[in-house]
Each structure stands twice: as C-alpha cells, then as structure tokens.
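INFO worker-7 received task bundle
INFO bundle size: 2
INFO processing item 0
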Amino acid sequence: MSVFSIFSKNIKGYLLGGSVLVLSLGACQNNYLELTPVNTISDAAAFSTPEKILSQVRSLYSRFSSESFYGGRYLVFNEQRGDEFSQNDGNNSTGANVWNQSISGSGDFVNAVWNAAYLTINYSNILIDNLETTSVIDEATRNRYIGEAKFIRAISYFSLVQTYARPYAQNSEGTGLPLRLKGETSGGNNDFGFSPVSAVYTQILKDLDDAETFLPESYADALSGISRARKAAAIALKTRVYLVKGDYQKVVQEAAKIVSSSAPYSYKSGGTELNLEGDLSVLFSGNYTGNEAIFYIPFALPSEAPGLQSSLAANYLSPVIYFNTNGIIADPVFGETSTDKRKNLIRENASGQKLLNKFPKNAAPFTDYIPVIRYAEVILNYAEAAAQTGDLATSLNLLKAVRNRSDANYSYTGDTANAAFLIAAIETERRIELVGEGFRTHDLFRKVLPLPGKVGNAGTAPEIKPAAENYVWAIPSNELAYNKLAPR
C-alpha cells in the first residue's frame, strides 16, 4: 500500500496531536482503506484555536521521532551500513541484512524508513497549507510555525535523498525522489514523478533558507530550545547539506554565522548560546540540554521512548552491534595509553567486545536524548570546508578545538600546512567524534567511497563499490506497487 493511501485515509486521526492510529508500515492489508479513525475531526477544528495549532506543531516532532526514523532505527542503519561496527545478531529483525548489505527494496526496513519520512513530510505539508491560510494566530507566530514545518520537511527530504538516491557527487542529475510539497488529505494521488537529485537539494536548501528567516533565535526554556527548530538549527543543517554537495564556500558562509572567528569558538544571540561542552560525561548523560545541543530528540516521558529493537542504547550495549576491530576503534585515541576523554565512552563486555556507551540508558524505557545536530559537527564541517577553500590556518584551529576539548595536550605533528593532510585529519576526527550518531555511511557516500567489507559474529559483509546496484537502498516495493510513475 502506498504511504499516501495509508496516510490520507487516516489523516484526521493524525491531526489530533497526541492521538494517532497505529499503522503497520510493513505488509499491506486492504482493510486499512476501510478504517475510520476513532478520533476524526475536521481540518477547521484542528486549526481552530491557537492552542490546537500549537498542538499540531508539537505533533510534527513526534512524527519525526518515529522509531523507524530519527527516533532510533534510521541512525542505527547508517552505522550498520558503514564500517565502524560489526554485527552480533544474525536476525534480520535487528538489521542483519542491513549490516551485510543484502536488504532489498521489499525489505521491511527499506519500506519503513521511506514511509516514516514521507508521513513526516506530509504532516509538514498539511501544517504549512493550513498555516498559510489561518487567521487564528498572528503573522509572526504563523511564520514561526511554518519555519518549524519547513525545517522538518528539509531534514526529512535530506535523509531520504541520502538513503535512496545516488550521492550528489556521483550523479546530481540522476533519479531523486518524489517532491511532494502539498498536503495529501484524500486518496488517489499515488502516482507522482521523481525529481532529479539536484532538484531535491534545491528544495531542501530553499526550505532551510525560509526556516532561517522565520524561526526564532531561541525559546523560553532549555528543553524547547534543543527540541524545537530555531535559527541556529537551520543554519547548522545547511552546513551539512552544502558539505554533501561539495559547495565549500557556502559551508564557510553558513558556518561563520554561528561560529566565532577565533577560539574559543562559540555563538551568542537572542538567548541562544552555542559552544563545545567541556564535560563529555554531561554531554552523554542521557538528557543533555546544554550549549552544544543544537537540535535533539528528547524523550521526556517514558511513553515517548523507542522500543527495545529501535533504541540506540539497546543496539549499542546489548549489544546488537559492537566495534569492528578494523574500524575507528583501532585509532590510538581509544588505546590504553590515550589521554583523550572520549575513550571513556567505550566499554568492554565479558566477550571482549568494545561497545559504544554514548547512550547509557540500556533498560526500558530507553529515554536517552538523540543528538541530531551538535555544535561539534558544525565546527568540523567548517574545518573541512576551510581546508578545501585554502584557509588552512582556520581549518587547523577549528580541528584543534574539537580534539583539544577531549585531550588538551594533543598536538598535530604532521604537515598541517598541507590541505590533504588536514582533510584526512578532519575525516578521522569526524569518525572519532561522531561515531554512533548516524554519520558514517553518509560521509562515505558524499565522497563516493566504497562501503567497506567487514566481519562479525553474524558473518561477513562484502565491500560494496559505488557502481553497485545496492550501494544505496532501492526504491521501496510499496512505492513501486502503487506509484505508476516510479522508475523501474
């Protein structure tokens, strides 16, 4: 069943904020078409008061934090496909077929991520459509909410295009995604053409530019500040998108908006303060809301937390996946004699496996906040772009800021006046700093590098070269079945 068939038949239930229908995103069953939502209300009622409109905006974030999407699985999949982790569990329900690169377009996870992301996009579209015509709230509030919806739409499309389309650097004019920009509230609009990769990126950046214009600098409380989109989040995400495009001048331009020109690198404006957290034990304590958090998914209530198989803690600490001895764990940073504090984020189990301990709440409810955008990433994005554009002094200083926050005495002894040396050092630093946060596969993709082979208790995963058909995930079988315009 098409995601839009499911969604449109049940949209009124989704517009109730906290009350949603439970839908299977795997196998299709015809009786979904016959379901009548228990809590059906009209669009007019759902957007009839400021309080109800705010509820719809808040509910958008719950769509984004779906277990199949940024609430857990999507990040784990991007680590399983990369080379930093080996797999213990050979069961496909824990992503063994993701890790060993054998999952196909009919796989449940391939369909689930697509569906969860497009449900989020459609919810964003419905919000934008209704907000553009409402007179219930003032213009500034309306624009702020539209900015939030465009931010979520942008990051959702960015996640999809990186997962299901060829990398921008490999084929920017190749098949991208269906660019659905209007809300679907009735059935029958399953047939929708696929736009090229470049057009998807253009739309993502347009949404982020609009979001930057409309979003507030800050919110009244710390939790809202990290869990709702603000200007700094839109800017930070643009540095990530432009880095993937290889537009390094634009990365520098955007990063300079929220990173000071000299150390200690920070940002302060309108109630927002950003800087690197000095205490890593605070940063990865489970519910961080400090100045390094640009955009996080919080699980403030146990009922919001992901289930066992979707939670980051359970996957890393049970462990479903453990560090590949040939991956970044072999770096001296994690060695016995290292003075780098990040080695304290690694545990060893009774089997001698090295485990990631960034998400320590390894028991239900799995309420660790999920870092979607951290200030450290922005600094590393800036450092790489500065090196690529010839500003080697700035690049080195930014790189040092991240390394020396964890190891104050570390000094780079290589040829720091050489751009290639710095870029390689930054790549290593990204692997160390951002490990387990869902970046590795996409960092390989943006440079059109093979997905390296690896071994684990679940078997062997072969190297996947960029020209291979399964380098990126296939268009999901459900989309092919119900969208006659989908490429075959």
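INFO item 0 finished
INFO processing item 1
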Amino acid sequence: MGNKLLMQAFIQTLIQAIGEKNILTDPAECLAYGYDNSRRQGHPEVVVFAENTLQIQKVISLCNQHKVPLTARGRGTGTPGGAVPVMGGLVLSCERMQQVVKVDPANRLMVVEPGVLNQTVQTLAAQHGFFWAPDPSSAAFCTVGGNLAYNAAGPRAIKYGAARENTLALTAVTGGGEIIHTGSATTKGATGYDLTRLLIGSEGTLAIITEATLKLTPLPEAKQTIRAVYRHIAAAAEAVARIMAQPVVPCSLEFIDAKAIALIRAQGVDLPAQAGALLLIEIDGLATELPAAARKIEQAALQTDLLEIKIAADAAEAEQLWDARKALSPALRTLAPGKINEDVVVPVAHVPLLIEKLNTLSEKYHINIVNFGHAGNGNIHINLLIDSNDAQQRQGAEQCLAEIFDSVLALNGTLSGEHGIGIEKRDFMAKAIDANTLNIMRQIKEVFDPNAILNPGKIFPAY
C-alpha cells in the first residue's frame, strides 16, 4: 500500500509540473504503452506525453527525486524489447514531439524533434533533392528518436552508413536531469569527446534525445538493379566478397537463402529450380555512368555456380526483380505470425558458415529458420518460424537462440547490426564484450544516469 501511495503522490506532482492533459494513469490505457514489436509486455503505472525539452527535464528530475524508473518510447517498432518498461514506473512517449525545426538545404541538414517519422524526413528531404541515409523497413511508422536510440540502418547502410554516420548534433536530457548539446552543425569537427555517437545506439539508457541535426545526402540521379541467383550460399558469399572489393560500391546488396527462396517461389515469383541463394544488388549515381558500373558489378558477380543474372532495363523491370524480396515478409507473416526475428553480423566470408550452422540448428530443434539480410556488411536477419502459443516451441526457440548467438560470436561476429540489444540479447553481452570494457560502459552509464532510472534492465547483463 505504501508503494501505491507513493506512486499516487508522484503522479500528483507530475500533474502539477506538466499538466493533466499530458498524462495517462488508467491501467488499461497505460497497458498500450507497455509493449513493443518484441511482443513482450510491461505494466507502466503512468504514461507521460512530452511536448518539449523542458518538460522532459522536469519529468526526469521528478523521477530522480521519487526513484521512479523511466522508459522512453517512440512508436514501439523495435524488436529487442528496448521500449518495454520491465520495472513498471513511467513511460515517456515522444510521439507528440513532431516538429521539423529547420530544413537547411544549403548546409545539407535538417533539425527535427524525436517524434518525427523517418518517412516524413525522407519526404521533406526529397523535396529539396536530398535523403537521410537510414532506411529501416519500418520507415513509414518508426520515429527519428527510435532510429537514433538503436542506431538504425537498413539496406543503404552499405554505402551511406547508419544513423551514427548521418547525425551531426543532438540536444538531450541526461538521466541526471541535465540538458546537454553534442556535436555541431558542421560535417567535420574534432572538439572534445564524440558524445553524439555515444548517445546514438544507447537505447535510452544514458539520456533522452529531444532534438537531432540530421546530415542529408543528395539524391542520386539514377539507380540500376541487378539480381543474381546462385546454386548455393558459398558461391553467393564469394560473389559478395568480389563485389565489395571493386571500386563500384552498391547502395544495397541484399541476400536471401534457400529456405527464403522456397517461400517466395510459393508466392508465385519465378526463380531457377536449383536456386540456393539470391543477391539483389542496387547501384546509384549519374545516369551516364551506371551502364559501365553495372557491367563491373556483373563481372564481379560471375561465378561457376551462378544460375542466372538479370540487369533491369527500366524502373518497371527493377520493381519485378525486387518482387522476390518484397514477397518474403508476407510469406513469413502468413506462416508464423509470432515469428522471432533477430539480426546478427558476421564477417562476409563467414556467412556460409553461419548459414550452415543455422541449418543444423533448424534440424536439431525442429524449427524452420529462414534467413535474409544485408549481405554487403554481413548483417543477417534470422527468422525462427514458431507457433508462439506452443510452450514447447518457445522453450526450444530460446535454447536455439542461445546457440545461434554463441555461433555468431565464435565466427568473430557481433550480436546486433541495427536492431539493438534491449532485453533479448542482454544476457549475452558478457560473452560479446570483455569484462573491462563492459565495466567502463557501466561507469559511463553511472555518469549519465546516477540513480539508474533510465530504461533499467536493458543492455547490461546482471552481475
């Protein structure tokens, strides 16, 4: 009862500080802000809709005074459970912070609040002939704040980088309630520590980002799409290594394995019968230069076990070549609405070894595992197709994932390329990062968040 009374007193203080219209306390309404795309569920006692930096500072200060855990949230599209309030407390939603502060084409930048959608940024930037490089598949729904929290990327990262490489400056409120400004409006700078890159990818455990200066890139004049189909994964991986070793850098290089090919063939996409792996390659640049660039890519893609290679003649044919990739997600959703989706990264040359291990684990645990992803940087999305209502399958999936992560680390890989750690992978962090380095990360956390109120239970494994 005491705790309940303390929470009620805290909520009354919140109402006085930022207004009742910005707060939810009804348990049923709060429940909707207790889950994300991981399908895990938390139970916040209160939800606050922030409208500006000063409000966020007030909320964080009050949470410090009352020792209330705070979990920041965008639109909840993340998969590792980073937005789930595992310890209850307060969920801080930034969905109302949707102001585009400035679009500055002359300096190739845009300043936005964290609740602005990725797609909104892309649309506004395109009106001036630019784009923002991060292009996650959830772009139509995810927010810039969430993109920065997870260091979001997407297919374009192979050429243009992820959120870290495309963000110039931030305004944020630390876990201690201090407003800080990191970076600058310039694309070059060497003034002190790079706190901008530190905050990006920290999953809301150090500070809450309230404004971001995004680096814009000129839209390419033209694009060219190539699809290459191989007899087996080893041939595709060798082709990827050759493609990435020549001067023409693709703007995307997507990979689909044999099980994924079987699924999309069932959707009516015509592919060679012996297809064991597929690459979708896209290049961009000046229209006059693309034919020669495409020939270089085609030459690099040629292997003994190449079954088919197609270069799109126009935009309509490019769309047809991408149909294989686009048919995959609907097929997966139909087969397993409760599928588990994890992203890992291994060196490109080790991708065949990882796929071979995944096939072995698929047989061992009787779980269908389908793999695709960003081949150019070895970022593979592993999909475990399970019945989420089957307790035995869920248990088997947990054991299978543990072996998958161990295998990734054994191949000199890393636990995540763009989805983050959250809850799902925190227990493996001690295997992925040595004790001294992990201890320094904990110390950094203590400096930014002295009372450990920000997104507790995430990233770090228990001692």
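INFO item 1 finished
INFO post-check item 1: DSSP finds 16 helices and 18 strands in the chain.
INFO post-check item 1: The chain has a mean pLDDT of 94.
INFO worker-7 idle
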